[in-house]
Amino acid sequence: MNYRQLGHTELRVSEVSFGTWAIGGSWGQTSDEEALRGLQRAMDEGVNFFDTADVYGSGHAEELLAKATRGQEDRIHIATKFCRAGDIHDPATYSEEQVRSYCENSLKRLQRERIDLYQIHCPPLAILKDGTVFEVLDKLQQEGKIRHYGVSVETVEEGLFCLGVPGVKALQVIFNLFRQKPAEELFPAAREAGVGILARLPLASGLLTGKFTEETTFEADDHRSFNANGEHFNVGETFAGLPFTTGVKLSRELAWIAEGRESMAQAAMRWILEDANITCVIPGFKNVRQVEDNLRAAGARPFTAEELERLRSFYRESVASQIRGPY
Question: InterPro entries annotated for this entry (predicted)?
Fold first, then answer.
């Protein structure tokens, strides 16, 4: 396993780490037993960083992480997120009383005394500009309840604003072959500011596995069904903001990336890791097999300069204009 520095912090994290939205809920049927086996397999292979949120299964993902990492609090780093359990547009959601409550509840579920990275979970830009929430996070940091804090953002504009906040040490950003915009301006600026980048949704909700067809359907409790068009939260969180059938068609045009790289999914994550501005990629998983498949991405054959330019052109010419929602 290779490790990368998380911005200007003391944390070195595995370049392939894991997100826990899928094992918490909203991705169809899951098994806690299989999830725990997957977490253990990841740790056995050197993964030392996991991302979660208080709303993933209403805290269930945090509880699973507590079981899996008990006794390894110094070795295994956990990032969690807050604010979406409330009204993200209401300033009261970001008051000291409320944020402190979110933090304490996450600490209890994680069975930890300190959160390694505490992230605001895709708040509106107006909330970020107000700045009150950062003052609260500074207090929690001074008290030792959180080690560092960051922001999970939806847009480049939000990310650029956060780089001007002294305490922000990490940005979590949607970044994949269908969402390349952050690489143009945000990532170089983050590197200059000493802010780490966590690349979420690296497989565009599964589109970049190449396994879907236009006839593929999802379970009712899977966000790829109930949020396919942004009905419940930002449309960009599902299929990278692309209409599903469009995404399936575009994924076929990318099938060539798997040549000599075992699978399309591993190739898609290898492409992300080739950006030196990325701290880590955080794919999701529901079972051991998916963990093992994702881990092999780090060893996939690198892309040539010609291939990288082909992928940039593909994004500009075929993808960018079809993405829905702000990004």
Answer: AKR, AKR2_Oxidoreductase, NAD(P)_OxRdtase_dom_sf, NADP_OxRdtase_dom
Q: Would you tell me the crossing angle of helices 60-69 and 32-44 to the nearest 10 degrees?
A: 50
In a domain? residue 91: yes
- Which CATH number covers residue 69? 3.20.20.100
Query: Are the beta carbons of 163 and 2 closer than 8 angstroms?
Result: no
Contact at 8 Å (CB) between 287 and 201?
A: no
Total domains in the chain come to: 1
**255-292 pLDDT tens trace:** 999 999 999 999 999 999 999 999 999 999 999 999 99
Q: Are residues 277 and 245 in contact, defined by beta-carbon separation less than 8 angstroms?
A: no
Whole-Å CA distances, 192 to 14, 122, 164, 199, 279: 21, 23, 11, 18, 14
Confidence of residue 26 (pLDDT cuts 50, 70, 90): low
User: Residue 206: which region, alpha, beta or left (left: phi > 0; alpha: psi -120 to 50)?
Assistant: left
C-alpha closest to that of 177 among 318, 300, 272 = 272
Whole-number Å distance between alpha carbons of 48 and 238:
27
Residue 120 within any structural domain of the chain: yes
Residue 212 in any domain: the answer is yes
Q: Please indicate, yes or no, if residue 327 is contained in any of the structural domains.
A: no
Residues 6+ apart with CB under 8 A from 93: 83, 86, 87
Contacting residues for 52 by C-beta, under 8 A, at least 6 apart = 19, 20, 21, 24, 61, 62, 65, 78, 79, 80, 81
| Residue 210, domain extent | 3-322
